[in-house]
Predict the structure.
Amino acid sequence: MSEVTAIAHPNFALVKYWGKADSVSNKPAMSSISLTIDALTSTTNISKNQGSSENIWILNGEEQNDLARINPVLKYLNNISRNNYGCIIKSGNNFPTSAGLASSASGIASLVIAYNQLFRLDMSFDQLVEASMLGSGSAPRSLLGGFVILNVENELYSQTILEPEDWPLSIIICITDDKEKIISSREGMEISRKTSPFYQSWLDTNKGDIQIAKSAIAEQDIKKLGEVTEKNCYLMHQVMRTSSPQINYMTERTNNCIEEIKEIRKDGIELFFTVDAGPQVKIVCKPEDKELIKDRLINKPYVTKLVEANIGNGARVIDEG
Ligand code: PMV
């Protein structure tokens, strides 16, 4: 086999992580629960760089000079495959890169899955988790579909807690600005861990929020899941804002969007939102309310684009030859 192509979808967290436990393994300091998003896709094709030890990474058609994000992942994988040659990696996203849409999670998850197949490594799932975590703390969640937990308490594991078809909620992503973020999540987390006075309370609330989210998902209670998701999101952004230097991914457009979502909720529609390391607003709602919510947001000056999605599946190989 000379090349393999794999795809993975980004995920966004309902209970988030912001802060690392360890910079070598890149392990998050707290557990998280996410949804895998089917409409957004990272596609990665990998082949061996025959006769050369150089790794080449082409992202969205452009050769990358800085391979810092993928090098630790490749090192881990090369150790298992005993490969001394380089790899040629061609990756593309069908959505804005580095704009708070978790492109690194899906990019890394698709890379790990493609490499595993190219070298026929038959890696254990724990190894796939470890390898992808080296590239992005949220990447192990993109290995799987549905509602996914990345647990770091006592034991490290990533697991689907509910399959997509068991609670088929709809997702609407409000793109308010698709420019690349100024400060990477990795840098931002480190600043927050060291400087935010709210960092400790953020850590302390994680266990409780995970428990509430888990039970809301088991009960398929959208109101309960929405309350814990929004509370968790606000606290993470408070940790960011109280860091020094201040980190602010939410813009006026983000806030306008949130205000409209709250108005829609006042009209009796069950929906909730979350925001990550970028200005986009992700909405979760019942499929029957999707059209009405889109109608309320589509012509707003602060919304550039609406992307509709469903809860998606995990990373997988789509082509080999
Ligand atoms: O692991 P990264 O670098 O993709 O950072 C993820 C950070 C957040 O999206 C803000 C939170 C999360 O749990 O996804």
Notes: The pocket of PMV is lined by residues 13, 16-18, 32, 102, 104-105, 136-138, 185-186, 276-277 (CB under 6 Å). The chain has a mean pLDDT of 95. Residues 3-163+313-320 form a domain with the Ribosomal Protein S5; domain 2 fold (CATH 3.30.230.10).
